[in-house]
Amino acid sequence: MIIFLSNISWWGWILIALALIAIRDIFIQRKHTISHNFPIVGHLRYALEKIGPELRQYLVANNREELPFNRIERGWIYASAKKENNYEGFGTDRDIYAHHHIFINNAMMPYKIDENHPNSIDKTFLPCAKVMGAYHKRKKPFRPASVINVSAMSFGSLSAKAIESLNKGVKIVDAYHNTGEGGLSPYHSHGGDVIFHFGTGYFGVRSEDGGFSMEKLVALVENNPFIKAIEIKLSQGAKPGKGGVLPGAKITKELADIRGVEVGKDVISPPNHKAFSNVPEMVDFIEKIAIATGLPIGIKAAIGKLEQWEELADIMVKTGKGPDFITVDGGEGGTGAAPPSFADHVSLSWVYGFSDLYKLFQKKGLTERIVFIGSGKLGFPGKAAMAFAMGIDCINVAREAMMSIGCIQAQICHTNRCPSGVATQNKWLQNGIDPTLKSERLAQYFKTFKKELIEITHAAGYEHPCQFKMEDVEINVDDHNLSKELNKTYMYEKTLVPFTSMQDLKDCLYLGGKIS
Ligand SMILES: Cc1cc2nc3c(=O)[nH]c(=O)nc-3n(C[C@H](O)[C@H](O)[C@H](O)COP(=O)(O)O)c2cc1C
Predict the structure, then answer these.
(1) Rounded Cα distance, 152 and 181, in Å
(2) Is the CB of 413 under 6 A from ligand 1?
(3) What residues contact residue 502 under an 8 Å CB cut-off, 6+ apart?
(4) Mean pLDDT, consecutive 10-residue segments, the chain of 516 residues?
(5) Which end of the chain is more exposed for a tag (fewer CB within 10 A), N or C?
(6) Is 0.70 topped by the overall pTM?
């Protein structure tokens, strides 16, 4: 027998293997019709389907084709983060006549800064022009020291090393780091300013019965003075109105301790909050937290129907109470995991959602007391200028921040197999991340972003992007006669943010929430 087997040639072995596969395809397996009907060759289809995304990404797709972020956008982030040459030669490769292309109207002569101007000293100094909590006289008002910040992404959806890199990175550039809904972890505690964010799971501030614990929140804020504000999540663009399940298998001892849940047991985040059931109750909840912690309180949501927002605005006018900031997430926003039907269709895209909401609050005379934060693919200087022209005061970036620390847009955050180690709990995959190096990358991306945003602002004749008006930006609806300024497209004028000078922002007592 051994002699017989050793006489079989290599191609004989291949034929035997193929014959066995064919027998398995036709007679044994019942799951795949294609393999049954086309034994052996049917496998090719599955193999090609599996590597299709990579083939398209690396070989086939053109520079501007991919979504969510195309190659030029990703390349700009990677080059900026590595402080490499992020310019392009030979002019734009964008079709600037395309629908929804934006144009920023430059001034005949740019804004001139003298040698003592804060931006002559630091080309990236760009704090928020509004103070969170100033109108409601919170005990600890907070002027974010950077208009570009890290958006909500939890420890759990991101790896420990990714969170650590982001936190160390925001510290370098005086930005803030939003915790996302997974609670405050030790990886958020490397010195960066933090906005503590919670959703319906109340992770980190959760009572025994899965509700909200004010005692835990107060203790958390007292023990961690780097928490500068609190954000209550109502919804997010990728899955508004959808709760979530954190499978027990993923709940390690560390995650359980941070989130305040049991090891190995499934945890449900319901679609609704237990702490309030309607808009007046939500306003009371916000006030109670603000009084107990002294911090500015905000809400985060994706926008669709406006009736409840109108109710909120009416309550704010009548009572003088309400959120200090509102984070508007676009329907194009990302997440760790969401059903495509939600990600694709539920809630409006950022420009539509934000313009609807801003108009509503403006009609009631409320824009000056709210810090508006935007998120939804706004992590690029041109897009940011448009968002400022529409009324935004700060921008949160999530996936762009992930890319700056090495994410390659593999789009498998939901599988725990993220090849770059950014969105996985797999220790081996995370080990490739060096938080010191990656924190510098995040910081460098933010620096380049702010520098280019300031340069665009100066090109338009302004000192601070808060001075952008709707008519400073045009959007293509067809040819030039039909290209419309933002005010004519979205049908409102922005209320101008009171702004004196960059120097006054630099001298502000509340800059970075340093004085309480
Ligand atoms: C991996 C990941 C985790 C996220 N986790 C949260 C979260 O815990 N809470 C939340 O409100 N939004 C969460 N988001 C949404 C982001 O904060 C952000 O609103 C959205 O991705 C849009 O910003 P971007 O276009 O800059 O990514 C998450 C996004 C990603 C990519």
Answers:
(1) 7
(2) yes
(3) 117, 118, 119, 125, 463, 464
(4) 87 95 94 92 90 85 89 95 92 89 96 97 98 98 98 94 98 98 96 97 94 97 98 95 76 86 84 97 98 98 97 98 98 90 94 97 97 98 98 98 96 91 93 96 98 98 98 85 82 95 95 76
(5) N
(6) yes
SS3 of 428, please? helix
Residue 242 burial (10 A CB sphere; 0-12, 13-18, 19+) = middle
Full DSSP string of 232-266: EES--TTSTT--EEE-GGG--HHHHHHHT--TTS-
Two structure tokens written together for 376: 């939804």
Q: Determine the pLDDT at residue 416.
A: 87
When computed from its CA atoms, the radius of gyration of the chain, rounded to whole angstroms, is 26
DSSP calls for 159-203: -HHHHHHHHHHHHHHT-EEE--TT---GGG-SS-EEEEEE-TT-T
Closest to 266 in 3D by CA, of 253, 281, 249, 254: 249
Rounded to the nearest angstrom, the distance between the alpha carbon of 508 and the centre of ligand 1 is: 30
Tokens describing residue 508: 């502000």
Residue 472's contacts (CB-CB under 8 Å, 6 or more residues apart) are 104, 105, 389, 460, 485, 486
Residues 357/306, Cβ–Cβ less than 8 Å: yes
User: Residue 309 has which token pair?
Assistant: 């927002």
Mutation test residue for ligand 1: of 151, 231, 351, 394, the one with most atoms within 8 Å of CB? 151
- Dist CA 118 CA 353 (whole Å): 34
Q: What is the residue with the minimal CA distance to atom 10 of ligand 1?
A: 152
- Give counts: helices (H), strands (E), the chain: 19, 13
Pick the atom of ligand 1 nearest to 235's CA.
Answer: 11
Contact 460, 102 (CB under 8 A): no
SS3 content of the chain, % helix, strand, coil (to 5): 40, 10, 45
Q: Which atom of ligand 1 is nearest to the CA of 402?
A: 31
Compute, in angstroms, the gap from residue 243 CA to the centroid of ligand 1. Answer: 14
For residue 115, what are its two tokens? Answer: 């040698």
- Our answer on whether the CB atom of 283 is closer than 6 Å to any ligand 1 atom is no
CA of 375 to the centre of ligand 1 (A): 8
- Which residues fall within 8 angstroms of residue 98, CB to CB, at 6 or more apart? 476
Nearest to 324 by CA among 359, 357, 289: 289
Ligand 1, atom nearest to 158 Cα: 1
Q: Given this model, what pLDDT does residue 2 score?
A: 84
Would you state the pLDDT for residue 58? 85
Query: Could you tell me which residues come within 8 angstroms of residue 379 by beta carbon, excluding any fewer than 6 positions away?
Result: 77, 148, 395, 397, 399, 400, 401, 449
